[in-house]
Amino acid sequence: MLKVLIDTVLRGHRPDLLVAVAGGFVVIAVARRVLTFVEDKLSGTVGTRVVRDLRVTVYTHLQGLSLRYFHRHRLGDLLTRLSGDIAAIEDLLVTGLSTISGLAQATGYSYGFIRDLLTPADATLRRPGNPRRRAPTR
User: Fold this and answer.
1) What one-character-per-residue DSSP string does 11-51 give?
2) Torsion 46-48-51-53 (CA) sign
3) Cα(53)–Cα(40) distance, rounded to whole angstroms?
4) Left (φ > 0), alpha (ψ -120 to 50) or beta: where does 131 sit?
5) Rounded distance between C-alpha atoms, residue 97 and residue 68, angstroms
6) Smallest Cα–Cα separation from 42: which of 105, 117, 93?
7) Cα–Cα dist 50/90, whole Å
8) How many CB atoms lie within 10 A of CB 73?
9) Using CB atoms within 10 A of its CB, is residue 23 exposed (0-12), middle (13-18) or buried (19+)?
10) pLDDT tens per residue across all 138 residues of the chain
């Protein structure tokens, strides 16, 4: 999009296209915001549900234990350990998923950018299936 702005609008002296290119920038920015919001909402919902299911499973297991188990172990230590572990898992799932997703996106963009920089333009024309592929010269 920036290439179109510089090459076509500014260098080509086509001010009539400036509104369309600016509109494209606005659409891209709004789409990124919407996708970020959806991603945050989805990761928060998934993380919350996993933690809820984990808590239900743990407390159901605790309720099934015998009274002898609770007499041998100090209840305060047990509850502190459970709440701390579940809070750590919740933090990982709710905030960690969006962080991991962002890092994966940045890695993909970086890989594509570096690949494009290192691939000569001539090599892309010679890829199989390219309609502008040149016949091999002898």
Assistant:
1) ITT-GGGHHHHHHHHHHHHHHHHHHHHHHHHHHHHHHHHHH
2) negative
3) 20
4) alpha
5) 40
6) 93
7) 8
8) 12
9) exposed
10) 666 666 676 777 777 777 887 888 899 889 989 988 888 788 778 878 888 888 888 889 888 988 888 888 787 787 788 788 878 877 777 677 667 777 887 888 788 777 777 766 555 555 566 555 555 565
Could you give the CA distance from residue 77 to residue 70 in angstroms, rounded to a whole number? Answer: 11
How many angstroms separate the CA atoms of 30 and 41, rounded? 17
Positive or negative CA dihedral for 70, 76, 80, 81? negative
